[in-house]
Amino acid sequence: MTTTAPPAPSLAITLRIVSIVIFSFLLFLAIGLPLAILPGYVHDDLGYGSVIAGLAISIQYLATLFTRPLAGKLADSIGAKRGVIYGLFGCVACGVLTLLATSLQSVPGLSLGLLIVGRVILGMSQAMIGTGCLSWGMGSVGMQHVSKVISWNGIAAYGALALGAPLGVAMVAGLGLWSLGVAIALLGALGLALAWNKEPAPVIPGERLPFHKVFWRISPFGLCLLLSSIGFGAIATFVTLYYASNGWPNAAFCLTAFGAAFICARLLFAGTINTLGGFRVALACFSVETLGLLLLWLAVTPQMALVGAAMAGFGLSLVYPALGVEAIVKVPPTNRSAALGAYSLCLDLALGITGPLAGAIANGFGFSAIFLFAGLMALAGLGLSALLYHRALRESKDPIKT
């Protein structure tokens, strides 16, 4: 007599994770829709320079940066679900403000001001939803699946960006600028409808470290993440203007190539983090990302730039979960959301500083120089990751000194 083995829980766990990271998908779809439109809108339609165009994008990430400590504290103390709901309300507000901003193009100062306020609110929402989804997912499926939660959250986020950029271009071409604000508000409303009655993750009781101590413990890993994320910030903010400066069409597909390669890498190789270890995976990823960014710098055709963007996305894909797994063990369980918030804060800092800094580089040396700078930063991240790996190996061989 034969018996049928019970089904493996892997699919059920994946489905549970996906049911939570769907909120990251909705958020980043709202972020992605205007991503290929707003730099040109601020630069060309409103008449501001490339630094202001970069700031209009990067201000969102700066807002996320300053909200991360609060987002982590809320998730640890009152629950991740509530933080996600707060963020979805912010997404709705951003949509309304974006609609008003694009309706007042004839008053450039007011239009820019409303746009920036909306992006600040969206940045705060990103902190709440991003940290909340990770914490909610870990609380629902357990810490043994932390790399899976982080990987699927990234797939949802970058998949939404890859879809959102060309969709936003098509919407504006077919319907007009007003459609961006309406779509962002509707995405937030849909998220609220899905999240409202969903089961929350339990809150872990116990003493919690101050945020600055949590940040200090994960800061070396966060610095690596920062260096890796400058490439994404450069592509997301300036690839449309880079294409335009070369007279190339279809810049939005460069963002799609980045996002598609990012997703493929996570789907194909996320399991290598558990088998090979976070540091080894991070070293390989940094190498690929560096080559991709340098290829973007040297591109002489849009096809060459597309390949470079895809390589950069493929390389960046597993840096976050690979080093995140190494970072999160540095804090007690009661501070895991704060640790994720502190770790992600470094990503926000990278994206926040990239816009104005890369805009200044573009003013002085041209848009292609932005990607040389980003490639050199990724190379520095490779070196720092190698040092951290060497230190971890040394500590594992001599645990008494640690």
TrEMBL record:
Which SUPFAM superfamilies does this entry report, sorted A to Z?
Answer: MFS general substrate transporter
Q: Which residues cross the membrane?
A: 20-42, 48-71, 83-104, 110-137, 149-169, 175-197, 218-244, 250-269, 281-300, 306-328, 340-361, 367-389
CDD domains documented for this protein: MFS_YfcJ_like
Q: How does it sit in the membrane?
A: Multi-pass membrane protein
Q: Which InterPro entries match?
A: MFS, MFS_dom, MFS_trans_sf, MFS_Transporters, MFS_YhhS-like
Q: Which residues form the Major facilitator superfamily (MFS) profile domain?
A: 169-402
Which subcellular locations apply to this protein?
A: Cell inner membrane; Cell membrane
- Superkingdom of source: Bacteria
Task: Provide this UniProt record's keywords sorted from A to Z.
Answer: Cell inner membrane, Cell membrane, Membrane, Transmembrane, Transmembrane helix, Transport
* Family statement drawn from the similarity comment of this UniProt entry: Belongs to the major facilitator superfamily. YhhS family.
In its UniProt entry, what is this protein called? Uncharacterized MFS-type transporter V6W80_11515
- Origin organism is Pseudomonas benzopyrenica
